[in-house]
Sequence to fold (369 residues):
Amino acid sequence: MKTIYFIASSVTPEKNAKGGNLVIYRHLKKLENEGYDIKIIQTYKRNKLSEFKEINISRMRFPLRKNSFSKKCRLALDYQKVVWKLKKNDSIIISILGDYSSLLSYHISNHANIPFYLIYHDDNLFDEVYSSCSILTSSETIRIISACKHIFAVSQPMKDLLLKNGAASVSLLYPMPEGVRNINRNRNLDKNLFHIGTIYENIHECIIRKIAKSCEINSYKFNLIANISNSFRTKFENENNINFINQLSQPNSLFDLLIDKADLMIVFYSDHYQERRSTYSFPSKFVELSHLTIPIIIIAPEQSALGKWCIEHNWLTYSKTEDLESINILIQSLKNDDFWKSCSEQAKLVSDTIFNPINIHLQLLNALH
Fold:
């Protein structure tokens, strides 16, 4: 039986988690069901154990700074704590590029001759702002991506970025959705437009106001499901058609709500200069929501990974700008039942094909072989 060691640092795979944590959990759970022995190497203290087998090496802590002796000490001590627990033959390591786990993966692979694979979801290494916060030096980054057996990139621009910076083998791997709710939809007569996911309050206030205004013009209710501060909510207390909903803890509860209430969905990246993540990141919520077959309006700069995807796939409800007129045109167009049906069918098409969880997992499985 092949053993897969997942080194957990910034990401811990859990069933009821969100974002990358949940995506990784789904892959590991499928691999376990397919006969792989999954073991999580925990590099930090946590009260709740995962449902996978764990190797805990988190007892000794050293500050993780880019150029520090303490980082080297922690790396050496963590290696000594874990190496004797590892099966050297017929095993691999998977971790996240950009955090401590990728550095430890490289160190273990270099000394114990176990191949390692990396997943890269957000560019925190090559972006000039985010890289300043990374614990990895530029030379460490180059060594890691050059020695890695294979890297899974979340978007085509991210794949191109990694190859440009010396990665030997990279493939595109979209975030794996749950993918069990692909249904033939009829219109919801409540006229609700929903957005789910992270709101950056210092970036997104302007675009939220524009979406809300367009919803008001078109007699829609704008529902935001996110963890938002009370001070941010008070900025919209005079907006009667905005409904703030706290993030639901269970994904299935969220999907049930959307199936019951949503007529339209919206996914956006602002053109605000601080929305740097949009260049290479690809939103897992878009992949997930496509399986609900609800029309999805997408607003993203054309140079973003999502914007490029929309242009390549001729997404019917895409706008490259966040001006009120463009948003208004999309919502008005979706009042037409035939156009709404076409957009619903487009969502179903991508959920059946490129966003199909079986196909996505098979891509990872093939690369691991």
Summary: The chain has a mean pLDDT of 87. The longest strand covers residues 3-8. DSSP finds 13 helices and 13 strands in the chain. The CA atoms of residues 10 and 99 lie 7 Å apart.
